[in-house]
Specification:
This protein is of the alpha+beta class and about 280 residues long. It has two domains: about 5-120, FhaA, phosphopeptide-binding domain (DUF3662) (hypothetical protein PF0899 fold, 2-Layer Sandwich), CATH 3.30.2320; about 190-280, Tumour Suppressor Smad4 (Sandwich), CATH 2.60.200. It has four helices and 17 strands.
Length: about 280
């Protein structure tokens, strides 16, 4: 069983459905868990053949509405997320320089349903943390500078400067002033929609999640589709991001985890074809 699935089952099994109310918020805990996994992957530093170090101190920035919903459970949720990171690191053979911590913070520049993750490598023997450089994803940002190293350790290579784009939801929206403008809602300058088996589904928000779960924005009844399979983020340009699905996504004939979309792009999830559309006016 995958680490994310185990994490989700642990949450569902908590006392009297404590997290039931939380799951109604735009940001789902399992989405944050997936984002933390990618934060580890994108900031993993190979020291030698037997040791790959990843961040151990994480801050999850949430919009004000999502923070209000999740903050009453921040202690339990932070512990569960830290446990998930620990399990994932064991699976990937990653190591840490100190205890794993996950904290939630409110970010006034984020809209409901969007979040970003910041991480750093914090050595347990030092009170001074040297944070990770930003990864190549919008707003996934570390605080700049190489991670701290124990005495005698070989120097770490500098991480490349951040750039590029990754959808929100499972992704990390850029901080205020750096993010592209949010896509206009239906009836605005540009209209966005998808077509599945001849049925049109309007995209009226900045993000749209496709999946087999009833929690997905557009539900696709296909056994080859994961519960939360992928996410479309509208903008300039629009993008699609795989959400850690079992079978992945194919965009315009190419297997990928992330791609830029254009009007008429063909997206294959499971055995279902989705046509992405956008038009001015």
């Amino acid at each position: 069983m995958g680490v994310l699935k185990k994490f989700e089952q642990r949450l569902e099994g908590l006392v009297n459905g404590t997290f039931a109310k939380v799951f109604k918020s735009e940001v789902q805990p399992v989405e944050i868990a997936g984002a933390l996994q990618r934060e580890c992957d994108n900031n993993a530093t190979i020291w030698n053949r037997d040791r790959t170090v990843v961040p151990n101190d994480f801050i999850v920035e949430l919009s004000a509405p999502d923070y209000e919903r999740l903050s009453p459970y921040s202690g339990q949720l932070g512990d569960e997320l830290a446990g998930m990171v620990r399990d994932y690191a064991k699976q990937q053979r990653y190591t840490f320089m100190g205890p794993i911590k996950v904290n939630l913070e409110k970010a006034e520049d984020l809209d409901t349903g969007l979040y970003r993750v910041r991480s750093r490598t914090l050595a347990s023997s030092s009170s001074q943390a040297a944070p990770q450089a930003p990864q190549a994803a919008p707003g996934a940002g570390g605080h700049g500078g190489p991670p701290a190293m124990p005495a005698g350790a070989p120097p770490m290579p500098s991480a490349p400067p951040g750039g590029g784009a990754r959808p929100g939801g499972y992704g990390y929206p850029q901080p205020a002033g750096q993010r592209p403008a949010a896509a206009p809602a239906s009836g605005g300058r540009t209209r966005y929609w998808i077509e599945i088996n001849g049925t049109r589904h309007q995209i009226s928000r900045a993000t749209l999640v496709l999946g087999r779960s009833t929690d997905a924005d557009v539900r696709i009844d296909d056994p080859g589709v994961s519960r939360r399979h992928c996410e479309i983020r509208t903008g300039t340009p629009s993008t699609i991001q795989d959400l850690g699905s079992t079978n992945g996504i194919v965009v315009d004939g190419q297997h990928t985890t992330r791609a830029t979309l254009r009007d008429g792009s063909r997206i294959v999830v499971g055995s279902t074809t989705v046509i992405y559309r956008q038009a001015e006016g």
